[in-house]
Amino acid sequence: MKNKLKYYLFLIPASSLVLSCSDAGKKYEDVEEAKTCSMIFIDKSVSVNVNKKFVNEKYTKVISQLIDENVKGKGDKIEVYFVHENTAKGKAVEVTSRTEKGELQGASSTDSEAISTEYNMSMDKERSVFKKIVFAQLASQNTSSSKNNTDIWAALPLIDKVIGKGYNVKAYFLSDMVESMKAEGRRDFHTNPPVDDAAAVGWAREDADGLKATLPNIGLAQIFIAKPFEPTASRKKNNPAISTYWQRLFLELGVTAEVVEL
Predict the structure, then answer these.
(1) 79 phi and psi, to 5 degrees?
(2) How far apart are the first and last CA of the chain?
(3) 43-58 in b/e burial notation, b at 16+ Cβ within 10 A?
């Protein structure tokens, strides 16, 4: 994958919103207070077709809602990664809110109302731009051979690293969660899925033992999973044991917040 795209966008009115990619090496000291980083992992492997009407509508709604809920002002940011064989190098885009609210202290009630109105209008415009950027990433196609494998594990150190910078991290997996890597010591749920919850829990414990030492911060993450399956999908297609595996893996890794399936 190419390096992350950079966007420099300027919006009116006076609070001038500037959207840009933050430097990858930026330290938390540069952030005035703990902000929210929404990490969106979009599955670009062959098993997920975002062009299907149900999938596209579901994922569009998830993206729209998370941006509305999580981007509340200066410093909040969105990072988008593509999930495939090279997830670790799959960052597609990063945008950061630059909207600041005017000083309210000492302002008259009329001025305060005007400042708040301008701020809300600016935030709405900024969120709208963010949505267009992320929707474009959702629609993009993966035509490379990387689509033949799915490395979801690689998302974990990415999440851990951002938490280590001091952000409140909300990670969203827009994926069927079918880990599929053929290297030794990896899982390939396409060829060998967990047959039941007992197997899923056993594998999750085993895998967590090998992963947790390198993930000191991940316990603070909030995890959300949006699968591409319709409610009528069969158990063979939407294997519930795979959901059990991920629920248990995150639990074993120390994630205290409940993993939410959207």
Answers:
(1) -120, 135
(2) 28
(3) bbbeebebeeeebbeb
In CATH terms, the fold of domain 36-100+112-261 is Rossmann fold (3.40.50)
Beta-bridge partner residues of 79:
39, 94
pTM of the full structure? 0.84
Q: Which tokens is 222 given?
A: 């909030």
Q: Which of 227, 63, 80, 84 has the alpha carbon at shortest distance from 158?
A: 80
**Residue ranges covered by each domain of the chain:** 36-100+112-261
Cα–Cα distance, 2 to 46 (Å, whole number): 19
Tens-binned pLDDT, residue by residue, of the chain (262 aa): 444 443 333 332 333 333 333 343 344 344 457 899 999 999 999 999 999 999 999 999 999 999 999 999 999 999 999 999 999 998 999 999 998 865 555 566 665 677 678 888 999 999 999 999 999 999 999 989 999 999 999 999 999 999 999 999 999 999 999 999 998 889 999 999 999 999 999 999 999 999 999 999 999 999 999 999 999 999 989 999 999 999 999 999 999 999 999 9
